[in-house]
Amino acid sequence: MARPSTPKLSSELIAAAALKLVDKNGEFTIPQLAKALSVSASSLYNHVGGKDEIIELMRGQAMSRVQLPEAPGGHWRETLRLIAVSYFESYSRHPRLIPLFTSHTVRDRTTLRVYDALAQTLAGAGFDPAARLTAITIIDSFVLGSALDAAAPDEVWAADVDSSASFTEALEEGLGSAERAEQTFGQGLDIILAGLEARVSARG
Amino acid sequence: MARPSTPKLSSELIAAAALKLVDKNGEFTIPQLAKALSVSASSLYNHVGGKDEIIELMRGQAMSRVQLPEAPGGHWRETLRLIAVSYFESYSRHPRLIPLFTSHTVRDRTTLRVYDALAQTLAGAGFDPAARLTAITIIDSFVLGSALDAAAPDEVWAADVDSSASFTEALEEGLGSAERAEQTFGQGLDIILAGLEARVSARG
DNA sequence: ACCTGAACACCGTTCAAGT
DNA sequence: ACCTGAACACCGTTCAAGT
Fold this sequence. Notes:
The structure is a homodimer of 204-residue chains.
Chain A (H helix, E strand, L loop, with lengths): L10 H15 L4 H7 L14 H13 L12 H17 L5 H4 L7 H16 L4 H23 L13 H9 L4 H26 L1
Helix pairs in contact in A: 1-3, 4-6, 4-7, 4-9, 6-7, 7-9
Chain A binds a DNA duplex (19 and 19 nucleotides) through loops.
C-alpha cells in the first residue's frame, strides 16, 4: 500500500465520518474512526492535528447549515429570530454532538459568522456594544441550553418516587418528542426577544 | 495493609476529591483520583460503581447547596427567581464540572428536588401541567446554558481577523469576569420571568 | 505527500488474594 | 467488608519505514 496516487482522506471526510459515528453512538474514538474510513489510525494524523481538531471540524460542518439572512429586510426582531432558530436547528440536527463542544472555546469560522450576524443586527437596532454583548450572550446561552435539553437521553429527568404531583404531572404531559423541545425553544425565544425589544425602546 | 479497621474511603470522600480535581484540571481520571486519596485505583470500586456514578455523586454534592425557600411567602415570581439564581450559582461554583453533566440523565435526588420546587411554585401560580413543563424547561435550559457560558475558557469566543466591528466592539466591552456572566444571567432571567407572568395572566 | 505497523504511556475495570 | 497488585482490553499519539 503506502502512499496512494490519490489521497484516501481529507479533513472534510474525516469530520463527516466522525459526525456519523457521534450521531449513532454519542461519541467516537480514533480507532473506530479509522476503521470506518478503512484506514489505519495513524493515517489520520496526516490530515488533522488530533482529536480536538476533529471536534472543531465537526462544529464547523454542523454550523455550515445555519441560514443567515443576507438582506436584513424586515424588522430586526424577526431577523434575530430567523438566525436563532436556524442556529438551534443546526445543533438539534446533531444533538449528541453538543456535549463534545462544551469544553472548547469557539474558534471555528462558521460559528463566529453566526455571532457576527447577531451583532450586526443588534447594532442596526440601536444596541450599544455592552447591550449587544448582553443580548448575544443571552440568546447564545438559551440556544445552547435548549439544544442540550433536546440532546439529553429520552428522559431528561427520571422522576423520583417522592417527587411531587406537580412535577410528575408536568412530566407526563410532554413525554417523547424532539418536537416538544423545538416548540418550547420557540416560546422561550419569543419571550427573550420581546424582553430585549422592551429594553432598547425604553432607553431610546 | 489489606483491610484497615476503619475504612479509608466513602462515596462522599471520593466525590469530594473528584470535585477538587475537576475544579483544578477540568477533568479527572481514576488513577489521579486514587492517588489524591492515597489509595489504589481498584479500591474505589468497593464504594462506587464506576466513573459515571462518581459524576452523579459530584452533581449531588454541587446541587446540595441550592437554597429552596420553604415557606413560599412572597410572589411566585420572586420565589422562582430565588430558586433559579441559587441553582445557577451552584453550577457556577464548579463551572468546569458542567461539561461532565451534559451527557447524563439527571437521577440525582438533590437535583430533582430543585425541579420539584419549581413545579410546585408554578402550580401555585396557576400554570397547568403543560405550561409547567414548558416553564421549567425554559428556565432549566437558560440556567444550564448560562452556566456553560460562565464555564467556558476565559475567552468564550476567539474573535477572528474578519469579524465585524459590531462583534469585536461588543466583545471588548465585557472582557474577563464571572461577574459579567452572573449579571447577564440575572437580566435574562428577569426577561424570562416577566414573559412567563405575562403569559399566565393573559389566560387567567 | 500520504499510508502502514510497531511502539509508548495512559485509561477504566475486573478479579484473585490477603486480612 | 475493604484494600492491594496483577491483568485485560482499549485509548490517543508518535515515529521510522515504505512508496
